[in-house]
Amino acid sequence: MLPRRVRKELAGIVGKGNLKVEPAELALYGYDATPQAEVCPPDAVVLPRPHWCLDAIRAQRFWGAQQYHYTAPVPGILAIHEALRLICEETLERRFKRHALSSDALQAGIEAMGLELYVEKAHRLNSVVAIRLPDGHDGIEVRRNMSDVYGVEIAGAFGLPVVRVGQMGEQCRSHNLFKVLYALGMSFRRAGAELDVSRGMAALEGHLAKDLDQLIG
Predict the structure, then answer these.
(1) pTM of the entire structure?
(2) Burial of residue 53, with CB atoms counted within 10 A of its CB: 0-12 exposed, 13-18 middle, 19 or more buried
(3) Domains parsed from the chain with CATH numbers
(4) Cα 20 from Cα 15, distance rounded (Å)
(5) Which segments in the chain show pLDDT lower than 70?
(6) pLDDT digits over 129-165, tens only?
(7) Would residue 84 be called left, alpha or beta, if left means φ above 0 and alpha means ψ between -120 and 50 degrees?
(8) 153 vs 150: CA distance, rounded Å
(9) Sheet containing 162-166: which strands, arranged edge to edge?
(10) Half-sphere exposure (CA, 13 Å, Cβ side) for 96?
């Protein structure tokens, strides 16, 4: 079982922009996380609830005290253990900095190529970037082209004229940032948008060059 100090540090908030992505006032929240932020399979999250895939306490009883009467979801338990091990190895401080730097760099690249971000800068999360669709453009077409041609998946939205790029876990690595931004820009261009993709890529590179601690890799 993870040490008490580590478990306390891993307390976070509900939602995409949460545990292991951005700092939180720990006194306000309980143990929680999303698999996207943890980089582990769906349903493998830290929550003290009466369900195998959500209950770290029950998992500890299974492994530590052999208190069980049916088979546990071993792959999910091992997956979350490995995800948390990687987080502890990196440390939360470096992880927060990596996500902040990655998100800032991607946002700068998106805006430099000529697209508009949906949310004002003061209210943006590091974990999700929402991009306003240019007038007359279909997000489904852009997303389909990104998937078919570049093997990059991004999300749409529920009623809003945006597409969304998740910025969590291993997505916040330099090679993934370059791939996503290039796929996004070229797919919008294919759909008829007038964008300066090379300028956006240069802005992304310029922001990543600030990573003197080599957080992003």
Answers:
(1) 0.74
(2) buried
(3) 4-90 (no CATH), 93-208 (3.90.1150.10)
(4) 12
(5) 1-54, 67-72
(6) 999 999 999 899 999 999 999 999 999 988 899 999 9
(7) alpha
(8) 9
(9) 116-117, 128-132, 162-166
(10) 11
